[in-house]
Amino acid sequence: MNRSLRVLAVLMLCSPVSIEAGELPRVAGVPLQPLAAQARRVADALEVIGRPLSVEERAQLDRAFTRADESEGSDAIQEILDPYCLVGVSINPESRVKAQQGPADPSLTQQGWRAFLIKVHNEAGVTAPLRVASPNAAPIYTRSTASPDPKQTIPPESIPDRWTEIAMFNDRPMNPTLSGLLLEYRIIQIYSRDAGPREAKLTFDVGQGTQDLGFRSDVDILFQCEPGVVVSLDIQDEDGTPVMGSLLIRDPRGRVYPSPGRRLAPDFFFHPQIYRKSGESVILPPGTFNVEYTRGPEYRVKSRQITVEEGAGTQTESFRLERWANLAEKGWYSGDHHVHAAGCAHYESPTEGVEPEHMMRHILGEDLTVGCVLSWGPCWYYQKEFFEGTIHPLSTSDYLMRYDVEVSGFPSSHSGHLCLLRLTEDDYPGTTLIEEWPSWTLPVLQWGKEQGGVVGYSHSGWGLQTQSLELPTDEIPPFDGIGANEYIVTVAHDAVDFISSVDTPAPWELNIWYHTLNCGYRAKISGETDFPCIYGERVGLGRSYVKIDGELDFDRWVQGIKDGRSYVSDGRSHLVDFKVEDVAVGENGSELKIDEAGQVRVSASVSALLAPEPDERTEAIRNRPLSQQPYWDVERTRIGDSRRVPVEVVVNGYPVARQEIEADGSFQDLTFDVPIEQSSWVALRIYPSSHTNPIFVLVDDQPVRASKKSAEWCLKSVDQCWSQKVKGIRPEERAEAEAAYEFAREAYRKILAESEAE
What we know:
This protein is α+β, with helices and mostly antiparallel strands. Helices cover 20% and strands 30% of the residues. The protein has 13 helices and 38 strands. It has a 15-stranded mixed beta sheet that branches. Strands 2-1-4-8-7 form a 5-stranded mixed beta sheet, covered by helices on one side. Helix 2 packs parallel to helix 4, helix 3 runs antiparallel to helix 4 and helix 12 (708-725) runs antiparallel to helix 13 (731-754). The protein starts with a helix and ends with a helix.
């Protein structure tokens, strides 16, 4: 078919009157002035949503508004608007609703929205909202209920019949409710996921009990859904390498494509963005779209407009990504050790969470070199099938995915959720059910370490909140949550390798860590997102950057977490190659020995990226309390309205030196000369955006005993933690737990006696 014939066919398809359409009855006796006012709003709204009346039709409406004869004016308005009506709705004097199909051509476009009118004959003078429902617009998923063994509520075979989304347009200039006028017009918008003929049942009502008898408020309409345009995507890294990218596609009204309400994996319904690799495609309706494209925090967010041509069938759009930082090139590999394929924002029906290939797509699309997918309580018995005790076969030489365990939804959860990484066995000895696991955390941590695992606490700040935001603070937290609560005990047993950070308020996470470092303990911090629970926007919002010499390897990466050869970050500020004198973080025990108190040289290569000036969105972030998301964000570190951020040297929990850098994405070499008066730990931070693990500077080979106050804080915290956790520990395990708590008390008492500085 030549182009002119195709255009003619499209025009015929989109014409307002169908050859087979039925006429809607004229409504007589309608006052012209209020009907004209309502018709103007309808015409204006159609303009707003991109479905305007023609210039001639708008002129005809204007003439109808001014008719001297009200009856003629009312009839003229109906003559102009009725052909666009998909449905006529009648509300009888008893407020019963019935519906019939109108004359508008029921044609849709795959992956697109179309607007129609609804003619409302309102004999009851109802002023409630006009509502529409459809079994064909029913949800295609059931959100997680956190059940380890959920029952399927949406059979997969029902998904094809749930092909549409339907919404009444009630935004301005329309009023949200019916006016009570005898006649008015409303706007309905209908979306099609599919191409081809599709039938939908539309059911209308104006409140409980208003549906007419005998299903007369239902109307069954056969839609013809024209195929959308297949937009092939050419997505290249800045060096021309084809990659997986993140795309956020919006129309001029801000609607997201493909529609999140009809998404199943690999696209997540709770995301506006989709992930596509070069050579893949997305189906779009004809029109103009704005596309934001990026690939994780080390890339700039770019945008451009594309036009999808009507009748094109297929077209190709190219996107060249732009990095501002490449940490892997410097030997620092990013990872998020805490993401989930089930639970929280995920669905548990029609499938129990999502599959490994879907998680890998998101890991690649966010340029996350290591992704640890943790099976936990929700859908545990299904998701644990993907655990293999090694990296997943979908991994590549540059991107690794591994299934491990979060102990959450287990009996010990009240004492703190645990990340167990690099396991060889994922079932606690002697158990087949979650309920059989230990009811406190020390035995689980010890079991993980015995098999070579790297173990720590998740979302550490929960239960450790304080009124004071000072670091460190002497205030004792409640220890009543699921964060790093029992860490105060298990760190004294050398049973914990790290506590997690970035996904809870920074002061709450760091306070307990600072106090235990001041007591000489050496657990590390690691960055996490807890996707899609605490953060659902994307994986890798909190991440660890681990230094690896040579090729990427999971065992070496997770060992870098244990050794502290790493820093944590939101991905938009970086603290690379941190050293004290010639000792690099994470190497040789992160330990520098000096004979006597004196000055040491601290160095690092540092970078951050901010927009040149704050805007409304970033101002909102800066003005939020630290207890509100995003908890760690480089925008919080901006100095005034400048583009500068502070880099601080922290010694024993307190900043002792500071330099400012321009957050323009460039790496800058910084040095600080810092006095060391006693054995101490030293770290760098851009607070709260990034933080290194510590280097321990030992004076005259003495252990770190930085603060009596910290030892006292830890001792009191053991008692507070016991007061909150004892009731959740099984009676048969309580004696062993009490002994472990007492061991920790004795350790802190000894440290307190050895500490001199306040």
